[in-house]
Design a protein that fits this description.
The chain is an all-beta fold. It is built from no helices and 16 strands. Strands 9-16-15-11-12 form a five-stranded mixed β-sheet, with no helix packed on it. A four-stranded mixed β-sheet has the order 4-3-8-6, with no helix packed on it. A hairpin with a 5-residue loop joins strand 3 and strand 4.
């Protein structure tokens, strides 16, 4: 809890801006208590923004919904919010953003800025097919953690299960620098492979599939 006073000692006054560090949390519940005993509560307030409280404006929060992207949240009208697309499934690449695209800077970039207006915003990431996955080729998956760790490489964070028609592989991911983890597989069977991850970090939990085709002999 923090408080701001209009008088604090002789010729003193607290800063009207109160700063809070939510740690690894991306959203928080905020309760504002006034000297008259009244309180106002707002739930699921997104981190990394400045909230201006002026009377009834406190209750005006608009929801940003992101399908296949970074965390949703409630925002006041006016601020710019930085968001990013989730890593694409295997054999796919980022294509574009769809939905309320008049609120974003560039529909063809995976990392964008959303301008929040006095209305809810819904945007969706779409992907398109990439090059095929060949038998005995290397499939690489990039995953981005959502929590903070002091030493990433000491954390055994993610395992992925690959299910082929006659073979199941369980592979551990590895830290690739910054907040990126990788998982690599060389599919042995020509068929559709389904995969799913297990992790304590929500950013590393994904599901998907890819089709493995016969290698081309030249």
């Amino acid at each position: 809890m923090k408080e701001s006073r209009s008088n604090n000692g002789y010729l003193g006054q607290d800063d009207a801006v109160l700063h809070f560090g939510p740690g690894s949390h991306t959203t928080v519940d905020v309760v504002v208590a006034s000297v008259d005993g009244s309180t106002a509560t707002q739930t699921n307030v997104a981190a990394c923004q400045i909230i201006t409280i002026t009377g009834s404006d406190w209750t005006q929060r608009f929801h940003l919904t992101i399908n296949n992207g970074s965390v949703d949240g409630n925002y006041i009208s006016g601020p710019f919010v930085n968001i990013s697309a989730n890593p694409p499934p295997v054999s796919h690449v980022f294509d574009r953003w769809t939905g309320d695209t008049d609120k974003i800077t560039d529909v063809k970039k995976a990392k964008i800025t959303v301008s929040m207006s006095a209305a809810d915003v819904l945007i969706t990431v779409t992907y398109k097919a990439d090059v095929p996955v060949y038998q005995w080729g290397v499939v690489k998956l990039d995953l981005e953690v959502s929590n903070s760790f002091e030493v990433h490489y000491q954390e055994d964070l993610v395992w992925k299960t690959f299910n082929g028609p006659a073979e199941t592989l369980i592979i551990s991911g590895f830290w690739n620098g910054s907040n990126i983890w990788k998982i690599c597989i060389s599919p042995s069977e020509i068929s559709t492979w389904n995969y799913s991850t297990s992790s304590s970090d929500p950013g590393l939990v994904i599901n998907g599939s890819f089709s493995c085709v016969r290698s081309i002999t030249l």
